[in-house]
Amino acid sequence: MTSQTHPVDHELIEAAAHVARTRCRGDNHTMAAAARARDGRIVTAVNAYHFTGGPCAELVVVGAAAAQGVYELATIVAVGDRERGVVPPCGRCRQVLLDYFPGLRVIVGAGDHVREVPIADLLPETYVWADHQLDAG
């Protein structure tokens, strides 16, 4: 774990918070995510909650970004509805985000203590899927 931090992208937090306030309704959509592309664009999305394990907002934003031609994400944040603030990614999202974007920074923490950390810092002793494929170099 590197404990490396970066300046916090407050514009990205506000983008996710805005979507959480205006688009999250009822039990199906309770989280919003915003990701900043390497070229500066911001992509947003909401989760699709379902008792079978519907996708989290972070995974939906990955698909939404690809649908918009964005394949390189620099930073991501998730914000809960009902003013719950920044919410860290679950274990599944941490793994997917690490595999898709190994250089990604994730905004975590609460209130005045939010910070950006490398995705690898959220998964000590990481398992990188690509490293274990038969065709891996």
Automatic annotation (TrEMBL):
Keywords: Hydrolase, Metal-binding, Zinc. The keyword Zinc applies. Residues 8-130 form the CMP/dCMP-type deaminase domain. Signal peptide: none annotated. The keyword Kinase does not apply. Belongs to the cytidine and deoxycytidylate deaminase family. This is Cytidine deaminase. It comes from Streptomyces violaceorubidus. The lineage of its organism: Bacteria, Bacillati, Actinomycetota, Actinomycetes, Kitasatosporales.
